[in-house]
Amino acid sequence: MNTFVQAMLFQAGYNVALVTIGAILLGVAAGSAGTFLFLRKRALVSDAIAHATLPGVGIAFIIMTWLGGDGRSILGLLCGSAITALVGLIIIEWIPRRTRLPEDAAIGSVLGVFFGAGIVLLTVIQTMSSGRQAGLESFLLGSTAGMLFEDAVVIAIGGFLSILGIWIARRPLTIVAFDKDYAISMGYDIRKIDLLMMGLVLGVTVIGMKLVGLILIVAMLIIPAVTARFWSNRTDEVVIIAGFLGGLSGYMGAILSASAPSLPTGPIIVLIAILLFIVSLFLAPNRGVFSIFMQYRKTKSNIHRRQGLLTIAKGKDVVSPFTKKLLLNEGLQGLDGLTSKGKELITKIHIDENRWIAAKEIYPDKDMSKNYGIKFIEEILTMDELTNLDQYIKSQKFKSRSYDY
Amino acid sequence: MSSMSDNTNTSKITPPNSALEIQGLTVSYGDKTAIFSVDANFPKASMSAIIGPNGAGKSTLLKSVIGVQPKLSGQINIFGNPIKNNLKKIAYVPQRVSVDWDFPTNVMDVVQMGLYRQVGLLGRMRGKQTSIAMECLDRVGMADLWQQQIGQLSGGQQQRVFLARALAQDAEIYLLDEPFSGVDAATERAIIDVLKSLKSKNKSVIAVHHDLATVRDYFDYVLMINIKNIAEGLINETFTNENLQSTYGGKLELAHAEELSVSIDRTTT
Amino acid sequence: MITEFIQFSLTPILIGILAGISCAIPGNFLILKSQALIGDAISHVVLPGIVVAFIFTGVISTIPMLLGAAGAAIVAVLLIEIIKRLGKIEPGAAMGVVFTGMFAFGVLILEQTDTSKVHLDVEHALMGNLESLIWLKAEGWESLFDRDALSTLPDELFRITLVCGLILFLTLIFWRWLKIVTFDEEYAKTIGIRSSLISFSLVIITAIAAVAAFESVGSIIVIAMFICPPAAARLMTNKLSTQVIWSIFFATLSAIFGYIIAGYGPHWFGGENAVSAAGMIAVFSGIILMLTCLYGPYRESVGQKKV
Questions:
Q1: Please, which residues bridge with residue B90 across strands?
Q2: What pLDDT sits at residue B150?
Q3: Best CA proximity match to A38, nearest among C38, C96, C77, C98
Q4: Shortest Cα distance from B197 to chain A (angstroms)?
Q5: Backbone CA torsion sign across A160, A165, A166, A167
Q6: What's the N-to-C CA distance of chain B in angstroms?
Q7: Homologous superfamily (CATH) for C2-219
Q8: What is the three-class DSSP state of B228?
Q9: How far apart are CA C252 and CA A390, in angstroms?
């Protein structure tokens, strides 16, 4: 526990502090860059990019060894992986544009084929004299043991640069993610902006690979973005929340794994992100499962209540057993017809019905009808609008009155 | 003043003359109402239109009838019996844009899908089935194109293929979702001829329709909805300017309304 | 020379072909239903499946491993469906959340076990181990009729044959339903076909194919077989049945040439050691796809896509 507190306060040694900072920066960068990808419905492009880095790692290792250098130089490996990931990205963009194949088929084929090529190269490296202890497997599952100082520096600087890049490009990225057609009408070149977005994702992937591994970096790009979506409907807010959640996962993961050596950094970061996701999935206001369920029950009752009362008011019989039970339980209907409470409510509903009809005439452009039957119109209109509406109903101009009260 | 639905002709249709009866049908998408407590009673052996502005719930109504869209409440009867177990009496023609026209298949294949229920999972498509499919294609004027790749068809031809597929089902009630949307004039003519021939064979046709100018020429009966019932009944009595105003509200553009009222005046006088 | 081929290459090539076909057939329908990446998601959760199976049984043997992988695949499919519906999240993102989360869980558990054999198994599950599925008892073509020799064929061959046969059988039986549900799911419902059941069964079949194939060709390379052969086949024809046949042909071609190039290719360039056969098969399927993208007779879209 002591190490945990120390790690929490960046006091557990220079290396741990640097890894923690790196993980936070990477989390923020991945969370926010991933949001644009997610909002453009291309979350799994990141999976293809990640897998497409593997052959690059292999090629870079082989070339660096041939040239007589150290095959494990992280900068060299990252450059190699960025190049093949870029090639993969270009193919993903090219296939659906030039053939009838959909984008998901392009993503899947690039992913499978590039990964296959990477595995082929890894088997080549294993037979090279210098390749036996190359440790390239860590790119698959992430560095599970301690990270080299050099790696941590690269991750921290790279994470910072990625965040800077996202900050600079935030406006066009947000507009395209929010509304593609609007962005086109504003003169943005969608294709270029999409490539820019995927380029940023590529950068984050390449940097994060050494820390969490090429499969789990996908998690850091997707999960915080999906989680953040539960908390806001505004693009810019989602980006910020996702960055925060990513950073939080990175920080928690890094300090947990520093305090308990058997907990590998990558999976812990991802599992914390998953935990945040599960909590949000169920408990987020408005979009969470719990809230939606309560909303659904309320909507269902509102609709049945109104429908039932209107049917009774017309002198017809209510058929639905659910409606019958609801009206009885709420004391709106007794054994011998409507109760006084029910009659009161039906008058209110009749007033509301007339208001809806009138509202359609005087506010034709207001998109309200989606709430009809669920809410009373007074819950939607402002005070002034409502007064205006009632004056209209009383006037001679309103001819479509359909209920007396 | 009385409730609006009292000026409809619902009461005139008694079960022997009723093809499709809907009572208190409500559908919501999450917390948004799609249709609220819609009643309708479409007569047998006639052509009925469902009209209303965009987002009025016309397609939702059809989808809910055939069980593709779950309903929140409501009852649906066909020929006086609950729709469950009677679904085979209905043939549905979806909107043209609802499928991938790049799918690797041809015209004949699609029309034969209408016969799947008849031949079962493993039954062979024999000469008889092929000739039924050919006949249906012939009725929509597409017999020459039976081998055509579906992606190579024009919008109107695609709509005709969908209609031929429904004809192959040999149903009692035909539900069509905007059959004339984005089709050429020749196709519109061809489709309406087929639908009228169905009516003459005592079949019932119910279509979601968006072109107000042709409602009077094509249909006998109309259901006007905008989330809820506005009016329902025989065209001559129901398709009035007043009801149109209540259905479309301010959304019915003035120019359009004038043009319409001219056409209404022309046909009623 | 022939004996050597039968001993060292015949069974791996056969297994590669059968694994490829098992994945390629459901792949045709998945691509047309815009669900191509479900194979990707399933392949990734094989790792946690194996690891959990080891934790539960404490032994490393094939059957628990297969059951663990199959269980994980089904859990993943259900979770994806639940998250998609409950959270109203688009399918790609739901898949991404589920498979990466499960993968992270698998890696975490894996790191807690010291048994190096499990690590080795995980590596095999990821990368494949086709080359080791040899038939030493074989002495020539006549061994194909020798009961003793036949009994030493690797078990993997029997399992993948069974699965491949099952998939072919089910595809033929349910052809009509698969076709209509893939083309027009809503319409299929109106003529009394249980569309959602068919769609779900397709995903389960995909999971079975992935699990059966991963133990020999490796789980992640399975993705290439799910997508590349059917995608290439899509560009060769405009008829669904012909497309499925092309995909079987391409899968076979990839397995044969991929294996041979991996095994003998390095020698042609003066190398001494063979490279990963499973990897090479994936690469070869990618080359076929690239060629069809450039020259396939039906590479261009003819009809408008679904809106």
A1: B173
A2: 92
A3: C96
A4: 37
A5: positive
A6: 29
A7: ABC transporter involved in vitamin B12 uptake, BtuC (1.10.3470.10)
A8: strand
A9: 75
Decide the pairing of beta strands B47-51 and B204-208.
parallel
- Sorted by where each begins, the domain ranges of chain C are 2-219
pLDDT tens-digit profile of B19-46? Answer: 999 988 999 887 788 998 899 999 999 9
* Closest C-alpha among C62, C216, C209 to residue C134: C216
**Are A364 and B250 an interchain contact pair (Cβ–Cβ within 8 Å)?**
yes
The alpha helices in chain C, defined as continuous H runs, are 2-5, 11-32, 38-44, 46-57, 62-86, 91-112, 116-127, 147-150, 155-173, 175-183, 185-190, 195-217, 219-234, 240-268, 277-295
Q: How far is CA B160 from the centre of its chain?
A: 14
Q: How far apart are CA A12 and CA A5, in angstroms?
A: 9
Which residues lie closer than 8 Å to C156 by C-beta, 6 or more apart? C15, C133, C215, C216
The domain spans of chain B are 4-98+171-268
Q: What is the pTM of this model?
A: 0.89
Contact B85, C284 (CB under 8 A): no
Q: Does C193 touch chain B (CB under 8 A)?
A: yes
Question: C102 to chain B nearest CA, in Å?
Answer: 30
| Residue A308 near residue A323, CB atoms below 8 Å | yes
C-alpha to C-alpha distance for B40 and B23, rounded to whole angstroms:
7
Contact B4 A100 (CB under 8 A): no
With contact defined as beta carbons under 8 Å apart, do A222 and A38 qualify? yes
B 171-230 → A contacts, CB under 8 A: 226-228
Residues A72, A150 contacting (CB under 8 angstroms): no
> Does B73 contact A at CB distance below 8 Å?
yes
Q: What DSSP letter does each residue of C215-272 carry, written as one string?
A: HHH-HHHHHHHHHHHHHHHHTT-S-HHHHHHHHHHHHHHHHHHHHHHHHHHHHHTT--
Q: CATH homologous superfamily of domain B4-98+171-268?
A: P-loop containing nucleotide triphosphate hydrolases (3.40.50.300)
Residue A267's SS3 state is helix
Query: Would strands B90-93 and B173-177 be described as parallel, antiparallel, or unpaired?
Result: parallel
CA C218 to chain centre: 9
Sign of CA dihedral A202, A206, A207, A211: positive
Looking at residue A303, its pLDDT comes to: 87
Radius of gyration of chain A (CA): 29
Q: What is the ipTM of this complex?
A: 0.92
Taking residue C155's Cβ as centre, other Cβ atoms within 10 Å add up to 11
Q: Which of residues 125-184 of C touch B (CB under 8 A)?
A: 173-174, 176-177, 179-180, 182-184
The helix (H) or strand (E) run that includes residue A338 is: strand A337-338
Q: Which residues in chain C have their CB less than 8 angstroms from residue A289's CB?
A: 86-87
- Rounded to whole angstroms, the Cα distance separating C153 from C160 reads 12
For residue A302, give the amino acid letter: N
Residue A111 has pLDDT above 60, yes or no: yes
For chain A, domains (ranges, CATH) are 2-283 (1.10.3470.10), 290-394 (no CATH)
State the residue for tokens 């041979």.
C260
The CA distance from B115 to A257, in Å, is: 62
Dist. CA A138–CA A264, nearest whole Å: 12
Q: What percent of chain A has pLDDT over 90?
A: 32
Tens-digit pLDDT profile for residues C93-138:
999 999 999 999 988 888 887 666 666 666 777 777 787 788 877 7
Q: What count of Cα atoms within 13 Å lies in the side-chain half-sphere of residue A22?
A: 27
Extract the tokens encoding C74.
């089904």
List CB contacts (< 8 A) between C39 and chain A. 108
